[in-house]
Amino acid sequence: MTRPGTGTGTGGVGEPDPVAVRRELLDFLNEANEWRRLFAEALGTFSLVFVAVGAAMVNARFGGNAVSVAAQVIAPGLMVGAVILSMGAVSGAHLNPAVTIAFAMRGNFPWNRLPGYVMAQAVGGVVATLLLVALLGRQGDAGLTLPGTGVSLFTAACWEALLTAGLVTTILGTSSGAQNVGPLNAIGVSAYIALAGLVGAPVSGASMNLVRSLAPALVLGEWTAWWVYLVGPLVGAVVAVGFAWVLRGPGGGFYGKRAAQGTLGWLWHPGPIDYEVRGGPSESDEAPRSR
Known about the structure:
This protein has a single domain, classed as Glycerol uptake facilitator protein, CATH 1.20.1080.10. 63% of the residues lie in helices and 1% in strands. Strands 1-2 form a two-stranded antiparallel ribbon. A hairpin with a 7-residue loop joins β1 and β2. α2 packs antiparallel against α3, α5 packs across α8 and α6 runs parallel beside α9. The chain is globular, with a radius of gyration of 21 Å.
């Protein structure tokens, strides 16, 4: 019995079978699973925005001392790590238009799927903010990302670009070996978001995410400094793609694509799996054996 993707096709026993490999790659790109990927992006971004915006709103709702500043910036990082581990295999867990654009620029994600991902992220962010307002009421400017006192819009935009460049560099680096479906990506990205938040929140709010900032701006009708959180993350993402090219050369490799697009339909499938067809154990192999 051979492993999936191996056989006697052209290379003998144990060598890759081009036909099997081709079939699995086609499964990986199967558009029938796109709705699952879009749902994962919407749900994952909802979870991120609910925590990021909700921490500030809860703090304001209960007197201003209920959730510390440190907790407010660490919580989104922890949530991103949880989403990567739970849904990264489905969609790649981008949760951020800047990340999706960076993956596309690296050649790891198809440009024609980018609008769907960005729309799903936007829907998740807006729904999260609407739910928070419905549950807690509007709490002034709580939940918005705004430049700190005395910080110019230009400085805030540069700060956002710098922080986002670091975030996307971390994501592209830890995803280059398809680690988006394992613990290393989750740990690295979560740690970066938390640390960047601790340093950057007083300056610009440390958003690093268009949806995290623009969704509450839309729901709350407050557009002060909105362009900072559009231009900054986009510039940072482009810079990070340049860093990735310097560090690792061109993108578009097999493992980078797996990390950016998820492995739904490639390494795992919804529903029961036919182990016999895929070269795994048969029912007789799994049956209890007497000694």
